[in-house]
Predict the 3D structure of the following.
Amino acid sequence: MFNEELQFKPAIRWGMVGGGRGSQIGYSHRCAAQRDGLFKLMAGAFDLNAERGRSFGTNLGLSTERCYPDYTTMFTEEAKRPDGIEAVSIATPNATHYEICKAALHAGLHVVCEKPITFTSKEASELQSLAEQQQRKLAVMYGYSGYPMIHQAREMVRRGDLGEIRVVNMQFAHGSHNIEHEKNDPGLKWRVSPQVAGPTYVLGDIGTHIFYLCEMITGLEVSRLSCMKQAFIRSRAPLEDNAHVMLEYTSGAVGTLWASAVNAGAMHQQKFRIVGEKASIEWWDEHPNQLRYEVQGEPARVLERGSAYLYNDAAGVAASHIGVGHPEGYFESWANLYHRFALAFTGQTSHDESPLWYPDVYAGINGVRLCEKCVESATSQSQWVSFY
Ligand code: NAD
């Protein structure tokens, strides 16, 4: 159960780039970071439109002087203040991440960046080196990885409850963009523009989420992949609104990943089934408090968040906020991650001394690599391409 007394005093001084008025994801960051008092929003360059950003920031309660017209001014001015920000979250469209991350790390800030962190794995690796050089952390907002039952799944695989992993079946396939909504939705328009979104649409936007979940749960390393992708809404080409990926892992396990925005009728449909030699587990983000556990030859079980029989990582600190039976969801998952980021940024391990896990820059690099390799394969008639 979550322990409210585990706070950082004072809270980490925190700023935001992007996430301004009407943005899709800004509120999620503010909610999660400040939920348990670990971070405090002190400054922001919230919007491309400086005036709108300023009025938005002051409406959130910030002083006018700390609502900046752009991120460069914010990093420069904050560095001069004795109470300047120590960390920043970047919630802007994809094309800007690389430059803003670089500037933030140069300014000596810890960073939480939205995914995909860059357009190329080369740029992502540069950010990794820069973070090391600056002795700062770069975390990536794979927001679903804070669900307690994801940690239960990871621990079950690690303890051998499933036996050796054979098959990883992943999908994140919603139906929200089955028609050309981008005509009236600027938040979708940039997602299907290569100059802003990068080399992919659904693979980077949602495929990277489920890929990361299964990567951290199984610990498997991809050796090669083959990808087929298409734009059912033709104006989205060369970006895809549907993609299928086949994967081989170095262990001999195999996987499939379906990412789609045209799965008509589906709300979210982010799911995995991980099959081991003895048993399988299944999870669906629309029912995140349950993990289905099927042992061959036994009745299927549904494990419930908050239960005493769960392993430590799923039952411990920065996991459940309330007891068993009450539904927890997306905001708790994000808050759990921000809790882990706070520990990492302040140089602490987990409260219980176990190694601290969180989606770090390496997770970010692999997400970008997934996109890169899928494009490479899909544009050469789905040929198998090596992952590294
Ligand atoms: P959006 O278009 O809704 O909002 C973007 C915001 O950033 C706007 O307020 C805009 O004015 C501001 N902005 C743009 N360029 C800026 C700049 N240079 N400086 C300051 N502000 C700037 O976009 P969104 O849907 O919120 O997506 C933002 C990022 O979050 C994307 O990288 C996206 O992939 C990611 N995202 C992640 C999740 C998740 O689950 N982790 C969910 C949605 C979006």
User: Anything to note?
Assistant: The two ends are 40 Å apart (CA to CA). Residues 11 and 38 are 5 Å apart (CA to CA). The chain has two domains: 12-143, 145-320+359-378.
